[in-house]
Write a structure and sequence with these properties.
alpha/beta, Aspartate Aminotransferase, domain 1, Aspartate Aminotransferase, domain 2, 2 domains, seven-stranded mixed β-sheet, four-stranded mixed β-sheet, 14 helices, binds pyridoxal-5'-phosphate
Length: 399
């Protein structure tokens, strides 16, 4: 590393609140599936800003759309209509099959809105305010208080107790444990269709179907968090579409704006007509013209560039190559995931492997201490997979 870059990193360590143990590089620019650090060193990126930059970096059409919108108007307010939001909500409804859209600035905020909508729905039904929500162990829904309250990692929650009340935790893919937590007060069940941060655990088809049936019988709302697994990552626009288990409320963010901070929670008409009304919820920035111009271009490019088709073409190859690695090395115990959301499970912490990979020009990230997570841009080719596997293999030989 250059002295210049080291000095800047040392400076940043004094200025930025230390809420991340950051990797020792300053990323400066990107092109396609590659990132470059301040010294000009090139990296192959299998993280995409944590499942965000689906289209790859420096996509000209995307960048031009943003530049055009910047020159027109960046922000107005949700007290007025704007064209990008009108178009973005129409397109999002089309790809999700949901009926109502609320734009947010982040994933956590989309979760907050989803939880509020669920509580309001139950409140309007029986007039009481002690409703319960069931979430899953090992889940991750964000860092704000509501989202943290349904996040199934006690370590993240404990220093900030008390959480919002009346949250229960069930075991993912264990329908009995969900049933054990259901009461007359249950208003919602929230889960990630594929758990991300918690270790890349896809929900079983039967588990999802059982939950859907339970929710229908008891008028409990099913909230699916598609913030990481949605937007084409698993080979479907949204992961639940593979099973046809439609949520009552769903959240999206991360790849939705491909880098412009934006998220959304969406609901069916049943919830839309019986939950949040004027004065119940709001945001200054959410769904502003710049953010929605990004969504519009992202959704257009998904179609024009056959992004999801590429996931379905290349993902089986990625899985095969990861499985081969898992077979060759004893310390790799499992490979699991869906599409371009994969995890390699080690019997030990993976920090050293990730740091070695970084030295050799490959950007990877963990999901929990023992799992390497692969969430590349959705535009990667089989050649990119070969290059990634080559570098990773050479790192694994050294441990
Ligand atoms: C990243 C993530 C969130 C939180 O999104 P932010 O934009 O970081 O607030 C919530 N749920 C899931 C599944 C995520 O992966």
């Amino acid at each position: 590393m250059s002295e210049h870059m080291q000095e800047l990193i040392d400076q940043a360590e004094k200025d930025l609140l230390h809420t991340y143990n950051r990797y020792q590089i300053i990323l400066d620019k990107g092109e396609g599936v590659n990132l470059y650090d301040l010294d000009g060193k090139k990296y192959l990126d299998f993280v995409s800003g944590i499942a965000v930059f689906a289209l790859g970096y420096a996509n000209k059409e995307y960048n031009d759309a943003l530049k055009n919108q910047i020159d027109k108007v960046i922000h107005t307010s949700n007290y007025y209509y704007n064209m990008p939001a009108i178009e973005a909500s129409r397109k999002l409804k089309k790809v999700s099959g949901m009926d109502r859209v609320f734009f947010t600035n982040s994933g956590a905020e989309a979760i907050e809105g989803a939880l509020k909508a669920a509580r309001k729905y139950a409140y309007l039904k029986d007039g009481t305010t002690d409703h319960e929500i069931i979430a899953m162990e090992h889940s991750f829904h964000g860092r704000t208080f509501g989202a943290l309250s349904v996040t199934g990692n006690p370590k993240y929650r404990e220093p900030f107790e008390p959480m919002i009340g009346n949250i229960k935790f069930a075991k993912m893919n264990d329908f009995e444990s969900v049933l054990d937590n259901v009461t007359d007060k249950t208003c919602a069940i929230i889960l990630e269709t594929v758990q991300g941060e918690g270790g890349i655990y896809p929900a079983d088809e039967q588990f999802l179907k059982n939950i859907r049936k339970l929710c229908d019988e008891k008028d409990i709302l099913l909230i699916l968090d598609e913030i990481q697994c949605g937007m084409g990552r698993t080979g479907f626009m949204f992961a639940w579409q593979k099973y046809g288990v439609k949520p009552d409320i769903m959240t999206t963010a991360k790849a939705l704006g491909c880098g412009v901070p934006v998220g959304a929670f969406m609901m069916t008409e049943k919830v839309g007509a019986h939950s949040l009304v004027a004065g119940d919820h709001g945001t200054t920035y959410g769904g502003n013209p710049l953010a929605c111009a990004a969504i519009n271009k992202v959704l257009d490019l998904f179609e024009a560039d056959h992004i999801i088709e590429n996931v379905n073409q290349v993902a089986p190859y990625l899985e095969k190559k990861l499985d081969e690695l898992a077979e060759r090395y004893d310390f790799i115990t499992d490979r699991r995931g869906a599409g371009f959301m994969q995890g390699l499970v080690f019997d030990r912490p993976v920090g050293d492997v990730i740091n070695k990979a970084l030295e050799k020009g490959l950007i990877l990230i963990n999901a929990g201490a023992n799992i390497i997570r692969f969430v590349p841009p959705l535009v990667i080719s089989t050649e990119n997979v070969d290059e990634m596997i080559g570098i990773l293999d050479s790192c694994l030989k050294e441990i």
